[in-house]
Amino acid sequence: MFIAALFAFGCGSLQETAENRPAPTPAAKQTTPQNYSTPVEAEPAGAEGGSLPRALGSAKDRALCYETDTGDNVVLRSQTFAINFEPFEDSCFVTSHNPEFDDPPMESEIGIYRDGERLFDFPSQFNGATFGCWVDAAAFQDLNDDGLVDIIVIGKCSGKSAAYNENMIYVNTGKEFTTDADANLKASDHETVAAVSRYVRANKAVFFK
């Protein structure tokens, strides 16, 4: 009798547990991850900051650009490139800085050189900021699909509490590069070349007039 009672109690307990157990949660529906890749991110790996491969010269040409005479400044090799596109084919995009500042390389400036001659001074560098700025990244892309290579420069400037962005988008007109400081300000919240490129491509009317 004791065994029968124990068996009956055990069965009742199991039944009650089963009845009160929450229904199993259905397996989460598997979904295919969305592809957020953009044209700039899809460009061939190894290009500088997503730059168009055809826009850049060879490693040998780039090494020659490092030897550019920039006067009292020194060449910042990480942000100096051999370029090969209109209107400055077979040239060097050279970033130089005050040798007194290495980390970060403040008082930077950018220009285009060929055979030791300075061909072009970029306007409104760092959107008019005159002290404590440097080039954090640069890339060469056709941002408005007109067949001309434009330039993105991620600029940084030293502030009282922290560095802040002074990004620049230089538009290739076929004869020179122009920029709009007010338009650049709208891209100042973006930290990387890829992020700036996406923003400019999505807001072409702001940058290309």
The run of helices and strands is HHEEEEEEEEEEHHH
Radius of gyration: 29 Å
Largest sheet, described in full? 5 strands, antiparallel
Task: Summarize model confidence as the mean pLDDT.
Answer: 82
The helix/strand class is: alpha+beta
Please, how many helices? Answer: 5
Low-confidence stretches: 1-49
| Percent helix range | 10-25%
Tally of separate domains: 1
Intertermini distance: 96 Å
The number of strands is: 10
Q: Which overall shape is indicated by the principal axes computed on the Cα atoms?
A: globular
| SS strand fraction | 25-35%
Provide key terms for this protein.
209 residues, five-stranded antiparallel sheet, single chain, globular, alpha+beta
Give your account of this protein's structure.
A hairpin with a 2-residue loop joins β4 and β5. The strands form 2 sheets. Strands 1, 2, 3, 4 and 5 form a 5-stranded antiparallel beta sheet that branches. Strands 6, 7, 8, 9 and 10 form a 5-stranded antiparallel beta sheet that branches. This protein is an alpha+beta fold. The protein is about 20% helix and about 25% strand. It has one domain.
Topology:
Elements: H1 2-20, H2 59-65, E1 74-75, E2 81-85, E3 88-97, E4 109-114, E5 117-121, E6 133-141, E7 150-157, E8 164-165, E9 168-172, E10 177-178, H3 181-186, H4 193-202, H5 204-207
Antiparallel strand pairs: 1-3, 2-3, 3-4, 4-5, 6-7, 7-8, 7-9, 9-10
How would you summarize what this structure contains?
The chain is an alpha+beta fold. The protein has helices at residues 2-20, 59-65, 181-186, 193-202, 204-207; strands at 74-75, 81-85, 88-97, 109-114, 117-121, 133-141, 150-157, 164-165, 168-172, 177-178.
